[in-house]
Amino acid sequence: MVDYSEIDDIPGTTVFTADRARKGYHLNEFCMSLMKAENRDRFHADERAYLDEWPMTEEQKQAVLDRDYGKLLELGGNIYFLAKLFASDGLSYVQAVSTMTGMSVEDYQKMMLAGGRNIEGWRSKSKGN
Amino acid sequence: MARITAGVTTSHVPAIGAAIDLGKTEEDYWKPVFAGYEWTKQWAKENPPDVVILCYNDHGSAMSLKMIPTFAIGIADKFQPCDEGYGPRPIPVVEGHPDLAVHLAQSLILDEFDITMMNELDVDHGLTVPLSLVYGNPKDAWPTKVIPIAVNVVTYPQPTGNRCLNLGKAIRRAVESYPEDLSVQVWGTGGMSHQIQGARAGLINKEWDHAFIERLLNDPEDLAKVPHIEYLREAGAEGIELIMWLIMRGALGEKARELHRFYHVPASNTAVGHLVWEPAAA
After folding, report:
1. Measuring CA to CA, which residue among B177, B77, B163 is closest to residue B112?
2. Are B96 and B145 in contact (CB under 8 A)?
3. The complex's ipTM?
4. Nearest Cβ partner of A16 from B66, B156, B229?
5. Do A16 and B238 touch (CB under 8 A)?
6. What is the mean pLDDT of residues B249-264?
7. CATH code of residue B65
8. Residue B85 reports pLDDT greater than 80
9. Do residues B161 and A87 make contact, with C-beta atoms less than 8 angstroms apart?
């Protein structure tokens, strides 16, 4: 077992490890399939049926249907792969990413324009800094 | 003999590519980003390289999780822009330099850098946005040949900063052993601080970014000791792309001279950093 205690100590962050790459393999493969226009059309016509063509877990499929990006990270999704999913919905990175922060898109965008999220308090869970 | 004439680094934010493709570069949001590249565009016209060795990472576009090579080199004669879910960017095909690429692969592998060779590689925004930032939007062809070097910065564990610095040094040795007289630039892309996932998304660490650039210029050997955890924590989960800037630095040799530096927040979720450096006499 690999020791992930150090990277798991970063608050609000799901580092995409080789273990997650294994767990999320089919989920991320599904996302990549949306790089083809014909697959995007088929997926959007009947999302459930398209998902059932992939050997993903039920939990992963449900999280895709819910567009629950925080959950998808937990289940082995990687943000660059998930980008194919939100791009096919017509969302930008800012729009999709802000959904994981508990902020509205407008507030998130304002935070970015003001210089981004300050790191103070976001370094370490155990140290609380 | 081929020689390394300059090093360039730049962020490769996909939204920058979209802003160029959709003609938004004059909008208030984007103007200050593109202003930082005006100097470079002029410099690039006056200093055309024959080949750019472009270090970047694929973002789940051409390289799936089926195989995760730590370092890969494109040895094909051309590389098509990817469809990343919204249609391919309307840009010219990227032309390779197979002869130098194969020489690089041979030299690197015999130098104990076991790089993966790729005969087919579609290139995503990681490679094409830097080209657009430096060369604008040419109609038919990019003004330089490009050899892509793809680095795994997506799946942890990534290569170490030290490995990247040493790869840069090995690229320099490889280029200098190529018999044809070619001007070669090495570009490192990605970064700077950014995180695009989880509750901490939007993280920007200007202080760390500026310190990174100073250390890259003046003490790359010390910077190369920075462990993954520091990048992930201080520069954001996706800020670890910055290890690719060390490849550029290694390729410039012991001393580097700064020609241009630009830093701006934000472009989308990211702190944009951009450098143009050249080798300096030791």
Report:
1. B163
2. yes
3. 0.95
4. B156
5. no
6. 98
7. 3.40.830.10
8. no
9. no
What is the rounded distance in angstroms from the CA atom of residue A119 to the CA atom of residue B203? Answer: 6
- A107 shares contact with chain B (CB less than 8 Å): no
Residues in chain B with CB shorter than 8 Å from the CB of A124 are 233
pLDDT level of residue A63 (50, 70, 90 thresholds):
very high
Say yes or no: A16 contacts chain B, CB-CB below 8 A.
yes
Please give the angle made by the CA atoms of B114, B115 and B118, to the nearest 5 degrees: 145
Instruction: For residue B62, give how far its alpha carbon lies from the nearest alpha carbon of chain A (Å).
Output: 9
* Closest alpha carbon to B184 in B129, B130, B216, B147: B147
What are the residues facing B258 on neighbouring strands?
A: B277
Give the position of tokens 């830097």: B130
Per-residue pLDDT tens digits for B201-243: 999 999 999 999 999 999 999 999 999 999 999 999 999 999 9
Verify whether the Cβ–Cβ distance B199 to A123 is below 8 Å: no
Owning domain of residue B142? 3-280
For domain A16-90, give the fold: Protocatechuate 4,5-dioxygenase; Chain A (1.10.700)
What is the count of structural domains for chain B?
A: 1
